[in-house]
Specification:
alpha/beta; Rossmann fold; seven-stranded mixed sheet; two-stranded antiparallel sheet; 8 helices; globular
Length: about 260
């Protein structure tokens, strides 16, 4: 159950390297803009799931905490580090509804970003705030191009755990160059093996370092009709066509939305 007593930690690793100045194929927008949009989608979903209506008044209960790392040649922490979702959304709004991205951080040292994430998470999972909660979820938003191989450090992150399970690593590929063909959410089967991914080395690396989707998340997505064709064994690897997956992957067991009749504290 996600609650004030058992909040969930969401860690976002945002690629803002020079290649993100390039337009996403098939669009007129640079890749960094897609990273910004998708991160905003996650923030809005977390805020909605932390908001309750009491009469005509909306009350925000910080059931989620976020930690954001932005990287290029070197990683940097956004904001004040670990923030509850209310504080994070306020900072985002005060900064002009922007994370300050622009494809302006040079090369792509993903290893340094994942190392920073690991150093933070190994302490966070032992922290009284999170150690009994649903495990932290790491969202890595990137076009896949990297000067380094973050696979090994990602495996170390996946070995960290709370009382409720191992840390989950999600890779959101800002691109569409895969072998998986689908029309939309209604027939998206998920990425299950390398045949779905294709031969691109960057995509293969991202797929291999992604966690297998827990049955609770998959069942929620199927039962709620978000991705009714989602197969067992799918990885937490998605391409730019599946932005709704990023939003709904947060739909962990017991999480609550902005409903007036909810009383979880």
């Amino acid at each position: 159950m996600v609650s004030l007593a058992l909040p969930v930690l969401i860690l976002l690793i945002l690629d803002d390297s020079g290649s993100h100045q390039d337009e996403l194929p098939g669009t007129n927008d640079p890749k960094w803009m897609w990273v910004d949009r998708y991160t905003a989608v996650i923030f809005k979903e977390l805020l909605a799931r932390s908001t309750e209506l009491k009469g005509d008044t909306a009350q925000i209960k910080p059931r989620y905490f976020v930690y954001v790392i932005i990287y290029g040649s070197t990683p940097q922490v956004w904001g004040s580090g670990e923030m509850n979702i209310k504080s994070a959304v306020e900072k985002y709004a005060n900064d002009g509804n922007s994370f300050g991205l622009g494809g302006k951080l040079g090369g792509t040292n993903a290893v340094a970003a994942f190392q920073m994430a690991y150093d933070y998470l190994k302490e966070a999972v032992r922290n009284e705030r999170f150690r009994g909660s649903f495990p932290p979820i790491v969202f890595h938003l990137t076009d896949g191009m990297s000067d380094t191989d973050e696979g090994p450090i990602a495996e170390q992150i996946k070995q960290l755990f709370t009382d409720d399970g191992n840390v989950l690593v999600v890779n959101a590929y800002i691109g569409t160059q895969t072998n998986l063909s689908y029309k939309g959410p209604e027939d998206f089967p998920g990425y299950i093996n390398l045949c779905d991914v294709g031969t691109n080395e960057d995509n293969v690396r991202l797929f291999n370092m992604s966690s297998e989707m827990p049955s609770c998340i998959r069942q929620n997505l199927v039962n709620d009709g978000i991705f009714p064709a989602l197969k067992e064994g799918a990885r937490l690897f998605f391409d730019v066509r599946t932005k709704e997956m990023l939003k709904h992957t947060i739909q962990v067991v017991g999480s609550v939305g902005s409903r007036a009749d909810r009383t979880t504290r």
